[in-house]
Design a protein that fits this description.
By secondary structure, this protein is α+β, with helices and mostly antiparallel strands.
Length: 659
Amino acid sequence: MTAELVRGQNHTLPQTRLEIRVSAGTPVVAGATLGDEQGTVHGIEWIAHPGSPQLPGLEVSKQAAAQHRLAVDLDALPASVHRVTVLLALPMGVGGPVRFGAVAAPFVAVTGLEGTEIATFTLTGLDSESAVAALELYRRQGAWKVRAVGQGYAGGLAAMLADQGVSGAQELARSVHEAVARGVARSVAPPPPRTPEGDRVRHAGTASGQRPPATPPAAPIGDPAPAATPLPGPAQPRPAGDAVPAAGSATSGPINYAHPRRQSAAPPPPPPTAPPAEPGRPAQPVAGDATGWSMEERLYNQVWGMFEDLARTTAAYRSAVDFAESRMDQELDRALSDPRNRIGGAGDRAREEARTKRDQLTDRAREALDRDLAQLAAESAVVEPALPAAYAGWDNPVWHAYRVPMEIPMALRIGDLHLPESADLRIPLLVRLPLERGIWVDSGRTASEAAALTGPDQLRRLAMENAVAHAARLLAVYPADEFSVHVIDPAGSAAAALAPLVDSGVLAAPPAAGAGGVASVLAHLTRRVDLVQMAIRAGAADALPPDLDTAEQLLIVNDFPHGFDDRAVTQLRYLADEGPSVGVHLLMVADREDASAYGPVLDPLWRSLLRITPVADDHLADPWVGHAWTYEPLRTPPGSRVLQNVLAQVAAARRGGRP
């Protein structure tokens, strides 16, 4: 599991060959210094920078860029090196920003060579600083660790180097900036989001749905501001301040809808399941038209492709509208700056002409948006009925033919997403399996209209019912006996909501109540995490105790923090941090305000969980194009017994007989 570090926090590095990935909202200079046990840098030969990018065990970029990948081999460093400090600085004398407070917060990730994130750090709180020591890798008792530093310097690169004991820091900083200035033409723009998984290209001018060949994938980037929950899955976030499509692009096309999380290499193209479109007419949408090795993977990629297309076409529309408004304001300012136009009919004519141009641009942008939305709606109408159970809503007929699967799917649907411009177009929100992070169903009041119309008691009831439905879906998509569910309900207040799980007999044990029940369940799951981690580290999986349940575990916690003492809170945080990597997952129903008495000690817990709501709420962030998506929870049709029927089949399969 990725460790999301805060300033001053450290994390053990599990390997010595690493990449340090940097993402920023503007081109920055990336470098690194080598220090001894006291952190002292003994000369310019201990500094890697654009003018001298390579040292033994270390290589940095040769130019300023919004994205960097620094290669580190800790085993290849000189024996006298005990600290590697990663430095970021704004390039001077090239016309860019001169302080970090004016740009999006830089994001730094330490990854393995295969791209798996080990630790991440978002450098928030910077203002007048033009250089910052982002993080450091340091040796402690023979092991290497990473620490989030985030120390900024208003005096720039020279002040930062001087603070590390570098003699001639001013001259060295000047030479670095000169080297950057010579290569500034090669600086790149802020990158799209994280690890590539595929392609989807659509041209707004035709809205044809045809998918040209993949575009080159982009490298990972960082997390958004903490005000909103980042979306999971392929639509990973990017920092606030990144560019959206240029004004007017909704009509002047073509628009590149490629998203770097779509898989673009190796998987075969989809089979030709529909005849070619007639000339001049858009192609008819087909379920599974994305790339992938199986129909499940194709549908998964297609769903995220629909999300990406909706995000980009809406961003283009919003950008065009903003451009039209800005252009009208500029024309009015120019016209009315002449005193002669302020009297008579000249001023009125100028206003009317400016508004007419604004309306024309807005209308053309809306036409392009409506065209794309119609195509996406047609695609959704074809894709939704073809989705497998794990991707389908509870009202999909696929659940009537449900059978317990033999293997887990790629992903699970946990809700729907939509934007104000297309409230009727719902995009499934899919998260990859096994879960990489826990889920928090927020039972507190939010700013949404739906929450304002719902009383506190009803919100808590809906939140628990929502959690039970998610647990049922997880049980339904796993093979029999490969997923166990535990429940902590300290006051027994969720008995009605838990009835489908209890009555079907799919729980590992009855819901735990009281302080003793809370302590027992947490101790059991904490022990499991400890034992599995030790077995993995020792390469002795066959030495696990025979009574240990090796199935994936889900812990549902109702009404947190009631019934939790300090020890229980610590265990819960431990499960949230360490559990997912060894198959223990959290599904919490909680109101953050109720836990405010614990202070900031619980902040890492909330950040480690994916927050969803029991009613519609626009809290999910997609800073990739600047949207706040409205999340809609999945609901069973009124009067339907689909939940009970699915759980009955799961219980029967566990008893050894498939219905």
